[in-house]
Design brief:
With 161 residues, the protein is mainly α. The protein is 68% helix and 0% strand.
C-alpha cells in the first residue's frame, strides 16, 4: 500500500495539490471582494471567481491524469513539440502583451494562441488555428457581447472603421 501511494505521488501530482490549495484560497479571498458603488453589474468578485473555478478544474485534471502522460513539461522545456523551449513561450507572451493594444484583441489573440497551441503539442497548424479561433471567439463573446466590456480594437483596425 505504501509503495503504491508513493508511486502515485509524482512531482506533477504534488504540484497539482499545491496549485489546488492555492486556487481554493484565491477563490475564497476573491469572493470577499465587494463593490464600493453599485454600478458594476458583474462585481469585483466575478473574475477572481471565474479564474479560481478554472484553476481548480485544471489542477484536478493534472491531479487525476494517468501517470504515463506528460505533465509539467512547460517548466522544463522537455517534450515540447516544434522545438520551442519554455523561454520561447515567455517571449510569445511578452510579444502578445506588447502588440495587444496596437493590433487589438482578435488578431493578437488569434496569432498568440495559434503559435502556442502549435508549439506546445497540437500536431497540425489547422488544428492550432481552429482552437485559437474558437477560444478567441468565446472570449470576445463573453467580454464584448455578454458583458459589454470594451476591449482594444487596435490602431490598425481603427483606421479602417
Amino acid at each position: 500500500m505504501k509503495e503504491r501511494t508513493l508511486a502515485w505521488l509524482t512531482a506533477d501530482r504534488v504540484g497539482a495539490v499545491l496549485f489546488l490549495a492555492f486556487s481554493i484560497v484565491y477563490g475564497l479571498e476573491g469572493a470577499q471582494l465587494t463593490a464600493t458603488l453599485q454600478v458594476d453589474v458583474v462585481g469585483p468578485a466575478f473574475f477572481p471567481g471565474m479564474l479560481a473555478v478554472l484553476a481548480v478544474g485544471l489542477s484536478l485534471v493534472l491531479l487525476f491524469k494517468p501517470s504515463g502522460q506528460a505533465g509539467l513539461t512547460l517548466l522544463t522545456g522537455e517534450g515540447l513539440r516544434g522545438g520551442l523551449p519554455a523561454g520561447g513561450v515567455l517571449l510569445l507572451l511578452i510579444g502578445y502583451t506588447l502588440t495587444f493594444e496596437f493590433a487589438g484583441l482578435v488578431p493578437a489573440t488569434l496569432v498568440f494562441l495559434a503559435l502556442c497551441f502549435k508549439f506546445l503539442g497540437q500536431p497540425t497548424w489547422r488544428g492550432a488555428w481552429l482552437l485559437s479561433a474558437i477560444i478567441t471567439a468565446t472570449v470576445y463573446g463573453v467580454f464584448v457581447l455578454a458583458l459589454g466590456v470594451q476591449l482594444p480594437k487596435g490602431a490598425v483596425l481603427l483606421k479602417f472603421l
